[in-house]
Design brief:
The chain contains 7 helices and 2 strands. The protein is an all-alpha fold. It has a two-stranded antiparallel ribbon. The longest helix is centred in the last third of the chain and has 28 residues. The protein is elongated.
Length: 234
């Protein structure tokens, strides 16, 4: 039952106007919903993908601009101190980190890791050239970078393809961290005193091996492996 909004008289179901005052009768249940605009868009619009070449060009120009501006500023202020090499090296390292993977779709992880480590080596070399410390670069920095690169490549090779279980992947990473610590201390001791005096690296290695052994046992024993999978979703 409905009533007129103006005079309050009772209205019939089929009336279009109030019989007493002539006010138009508007029943909200009879509104044509199809003629109304939907609240949410009904058609999915396709967003044009960003061109990777244009993005790579934009980033390259940005990195080059930073290096050139720092070089000009260095020449204008204090040309005897070549601090612009730090900025240029950082720009070159970032370019190697971002541009090749952006342009090379499906770039292998080993190739990407090699480029990243090479970029770090190049940046440290520019720092050595700017500070006049090529000796410490050749005797300390470069051996450490090479050792970390070799160990990282081995870890990446062992973990490639995703066929390793989570437990074995953790074990490989822990052993790699322990090995890295030993290699770093070895290179430091040889550079400083020409003799290896193992100390803190063996503690790190022992801790890593201590965590690795229970994980290996869990991986080997089926009942423990099933319990770990059930409890920790491994």
């Amino acid at each position: 039952m409905s009533y007129c909004v103006n005079c309050g008289v009772e209205l019939g179901k089929d009336l279009k106007r109030c019989p007493l005052c002539g006010t138009v009768v508007l029943n909200p249940n009879d509104v044509d919903r199809e003629s109304e605009l939907p609240f949410f868009p009904q058609r999915r619009e396709n967003i044009e993908p960003v061109s990777k070449r244009e993005l790579a060009l934009l980033l390259s120009v940005m990195f080059a601009s930073v290096a050139i501006c720092c070089g000009l500023l260095n020449l204008a202020l204090r040309p005897e101190i070549r601090w612009w090499l730090y900025a240029a090296g950082a720009a070159a390292m970032l370019w190697i980190w971002f541009i090749p993977p952006l342009l090379w779709r499906g770039m292998p992880s080993l190739a990407r890791l090699t480029l990243d480590i090479g970029a770090v080596a190049l940046y440290v070399l520019l720092i050595a050239l700017a500070s006049g410390g090529i000796d410490w670069y050749m005797g300390l920095a470069l051996p450490i970078i090479v050792a970390l690169a070799v160990i990282s490549l081995i870890i990446c090779y062992l973990l490639r393809g995703g066929h390793r279980s989570i437990l074995m992947s953790i074990v490989i990473c822990l052993v790699g961290i322990g090995t890295m610590s030993v290699a770093i201390e070895l290179i430091l001791d040889v550079y400083i005193s020409s003799q290896w005096n193992p100390g803190w690296s063996l503690i790190v290695l022992a801790v890593c091996l201590g965590f690795s052994m229970p994980l290996i046992i869990i991986r080997i024993v089926p009942s423990l492996r099933e319990e770990a999978r059930r409890r920790f979703h491994l």
